[in-house]
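Page 47, continued from p. 46.
Same chain as before, 298 aa.
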Amino acid sequence: MQAIVVHEGGGPDVLKIEQVPDPTATDGQVLVRVEAAAVNHFDITQRMAPEMAGATPPFTPGLDAAGTRVDTGARVLVTGAPGAYAELIAAPAENVRPIPDSLDAPRAAGLGVAYKTAWACLADGELEQGETLLVQAGSSGTGQAAIDIGLYLGAKVYATASRSKHDHLRELGAEPLAYDDEGIAELGAAVVFDPVLGERFEGSLSALAATGRLVTCGALDSPMVSVNMWTVVGKRLRIIGSGAASVTSEELDNIIALVADGSLRGPVVDRELPLDQAAEAHRLIEERQTFGKVVLKP
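Result:
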């Protein structure tokens, strides 16, 4: 089969398409023929510094794929299993979930890490109907998922992005804000979803009302932040770390069902690229030229 293989950490050009042996499913695994593989920011981090992301070269990146089971032909989503940038993937059975015919493969693949992460973060942030939610980096795959889930939960949603993407945010139902908008400090948000951190972190804290919750799943910018603890103490704020790992199979099945019946909008797929253009996919995301998910098709 063909697969993307990384032999050393580095820039997008280390993503090479190669002919490799077909995987075989061992006990407890399912073999899936991949129709679409979603690109996540984790894949970029893993490509740049494999040792920091638990990978040892050579390896095939990717955690999310949609396709069909080789044994039964059933349509499935594979999520949280490494090796998705390939024509075939062998994944633990618990990482393989059924998907309805109404959900096409590219959008199904985009559901995995992004929607699990956003679901977990807003659950840990205890977002409730009628509250205000600020989503930082609303144009990212995880940001778009957080907007979608926040609206489903009945929140008033604001989202930051570069000005060229504000119309897209409005189409999703969020009120757009520039990253440096002075109004951020006046939002009085109950919850801020911040996957960026870095120099934006103080702004995220300023957006919170008293007893507000800042939830983060990682750092698109630097993980090292400067915090004025008097802001945290004075407003009795909570800073919460969260992520996709806490989402159960039953919760993921529920997310899939909500997208299938239209309760959730589901992933916005910015573009679909052939598998051999994985380097271009990473480059576009790193240059912030995308809105939502980029999907690779073997």
